[in-house]
Write a structure and sequence with these properties.
Strand 1 and strand 2 form a beta hairpin. 31% of the residues lie in helices and 28% in strands. The chain starts with 19 loop residues before the first helix and ends with a helix. The chain is α/β, with parallel strands linked by helices and 254 residues long. The longest helix has 27 residues. Helix 5 packs across helix 6. The N terminus and C terminus are likely disordered. The radius of gyration is 20 Å and the shape is globular.
Length: 254
């Protein structure tokens, strides 16, 4: 039987060849980027804001955040720098090496890591950020929200930027296109409105506590139940105790 054909793993946003995002991070004159769907539809992104200091709308998110804070898909680190100005301990992660390098150069604490990799402080983050449409990471918002629920502590929160259309739910492969028509490799992505996110958050053990808009952008705050966390921790303790008892019993047997 012949081996199946090799299929490379899916490319992540900002990590493929021919990547316009790299030009933006390198300081070249790229003001806008667009997400182009497989069906040819295009959605413009205000990419210029990613390399500028955090704006008023960004700060409304930090107004609701507590530390330690994890910024997923931190890019060049504007939210990290704004958090630092508030003495809010924060770590950024991003799969794009150029983004992490730029965030570090500006004084941010950042790791080149996927959200689905093993991360520091698993289950102990007070706040997790998904800004700039990063709910789309990996093209599976349900899986991403479940992962975020694993990362935050009981009573912690996930702060998500969502689409202005409350009922929008678009999942598929996109490319990133810049002003000059340069185009990235396809990568899985998603776009969601707040009403759709609320349903997915509930399935992940998160409850939407607030939806607000600022400067034309929309955000959601979803909290993890402290009671749910206590139940999980109790079950883990019972499993660990049962395992230890079984090991001691086995070792005591002749």
């Amino acid at each position: 039987m012949s081996a199946p054909p090799f299929r490379p793993p899916p490319v992540a946003f900002g990590a493929g060849r021919g990547e316009p995002y790299v030009r933006l991070l390198a300081g070249q004159d790229v003001v806008t980027l667009s997400l182009r769907g497989a069906d040819g539809t295009s959605h413009r992104l205000d990419a210029g804001s990613w390399v500028r200091p955090a704006g008023d709308a960004d700060l409304t998110v930090l107004d609701r955040a507590t530390g330690p804070l994890l910024d997923i898909g931190c890019g060049p680190g504007r939210m990290l720098h704004a958090a630092d100005a508030r003495s809010l301990p924060a770590l950024g992660i991003d799969v794009a090496a150029h983004a992490v390098e730029r965030a570090r150069r500006a004084g941010g604490l950042a790791l080149q890591r996927s959200v689905f990799d093993r991360l520091p402080l698993e289950g102990r983050w007070q706040s997790v950020l998904l800004m700039d449409g990063n709910i789309g990471i990996g093209g599976d918002p349900a899986a991403l929200l479940r992962r975020c629920a694993e990362l935050v502590t009981g009573g912690g929160q996930v702060l998500v930027e969502v689409d202005a259309d409350a009922d929008l739910a678009v999942v598929g492969h996109c490319t990133l296109v810049d002003d000059d028509g340069r185009e990235s490799e396809p990568f899985p992505w998603a776009r969601l409105g707040w009403a759709v996110l609320a349903d997915l958050a509930s399935d992940a053990g998160l409850a939407v506590a607030e939806h607000w808009d600022a400067a034309g952008r929309h955000f959601v705050r979803a909290a993890r139940s402290a009671r749910r966390s206590l139940v999980r921790e109790t079950r883990s303790a019972i499993v660990a105790t049962t395992s230890s008892t079984a090991q001691m019993t086995a070792s005591a047997m002749p």
